[in-house]
Amino acid sequence: MSQGKLVILGAGESGIGAALLGKQRGYDVFVSDGGAIKDIYKQELAVNHIPFEEGHHSWDIILAADEIVKSPGIPEKSELMHKVRERQVPVISEIELAYRFSKDQKIIAITGSNGKSTTTALTYHIFKEAGLHAAMVGNIGLSYARQVATAPADYYIIEVSSFQLDDIKTFKPNVAILLNITPDHLDRYDYKMEHYVASKFRITMNQTKDDYFIYCMDDPEIMDYMQTKTIYSTSIPFTIMEPLKKAGGFIANDQLNVQLNDDPVIVSIYDLALKGKHNLYNSMAAGIAGRTMDIRKEKIRESLTSFKSLEHRMEYVATVRGVDFINDSKATNVNSLWFALESMEQPVVLIMGGVDKGNDYSAIKDLVQEKVKGIVCLGVDNQPIQDALSDATPNMINTGSMKDAVQAAFKLAAKGDVVLLSPACASFDLFKNYEDRGRQFKEGVREL
């Protein structure tokens, strides 16, 4: 018996995962994408006998759905969503659909403006090293729905965005991590920071006292929200500002401490695999998540010191004639760039630029003056960067391709310097996505 008509809007990894799970669980599934669908996804849909369309939307089919799974990339302001909302068709996100069929498993969900992917990967590393049957899903790797459909796990470590949280109804992680909240994607939230903050906090919406909420108490947006709203889960903070007398994570005497009971995890900050102040936060959050699931402290300590960082996130590429090259292509907002610069101890030649999302570059001006000897702009429109930062660094160069950018940066750099790709912008002007941008950077370095 059919569970009803399920229409999937958008045929990226998230949409295809939802389609496969929906079909498997007895829904009458139809996939609609206003753009082109990748060949590999079309083949999957065809093999699984799931009807689809691309390049347009069939309103009659979409509006006749019992339920719609909306891709995180489709804005509420689109004509498509106006029509759906007018007709009052129920809309959910892919993580909501996946949750329906994995409620009995343990779910650790991680969100924040910056550091999500690193913390998700580190948390997964801890769980895997502890011998648990865990899967890393969401915005990193396979979609949550695809994993539930094809290779169910006992623990799901999920990277979730605010867009995915906007369309949840019952989704309830056993452990929710909120790393930080800085301005990002405000175009999707009527340019109102409070709407974006509320969206991030939806991760706690359905939690009870039996669940955990792990949060950064050094983040003003998080702390302001928590002073006015009730969080029903067991809240555990982490901070680098002061030692804690209660459960949580903190830094003291150059040691990272995670205490959730009378037996704390203690690791020298110099032994941590991930360097930089921002990664102290990420390491504490992941360590606390491990302790909530009773992973032994020895395993957590080992994992925090053995983890290998992600591709495109402060990824060391090579040293060419004494110049280090670092790929931080995943830095798609100003705050990510700030963290990258903050962790640098060598003089920096910075490659930045791309699709500007209304960035305020003044936040990094002091760091640029202190650490950056030259900026290589890479994008179609570099004017906002030039206007904001040209007087903060002695050298500023415009380029129109990654190859040119790498060569220009290498010319500016001297032995002992670092060339850092940390764009602070989206990648869609010159590249398919941030991965494509990072790969082209690495190719450019190899060709030097």
TrEMBL record:
Enzyme class, spelled out: ligase
GO BP terms, alphabetized: cell division; cell wall organization; peptidoglycan biosynthetic process; regulation of cell shape
SUPFAM superfamilies for this protein: MurCD N-terminal domain, MurD-like peptide ligases, catalytic domain, MurD-like peptide ligases, peptide-binding domain
Reaction(s) the record says it catalyses: UDP-N-acetyl-alpha-D-muramoyl-L-alanine + D-glutamate + ATP = UDP-N-acetyl-alpha-D-muramoyl-L-alanyl-D-glutamate + ADP + phosphate + H(+)
Sequence ranges assigned to domain Mur ligase central in this UniProt record: 110-289
Matching InterPro entries: Mur-like_cat_sf, Mur_ligase_C, Mur_ligase_C_dom_sf, Mur_ligase_cen, MurD
Family, similarity comment: Belongs to the MurCDEF family.
Record-given protein name: UDP-N-acetylmuramoylalanine--D-glutamate ligase
Organism: Chitinophaga japonensis (Flexibacter japonensis)
Lineage of the species this protein comes from: Bacteria, Pseudomonadati, Bacteroidota, Chitinophagia, Chitinophagales
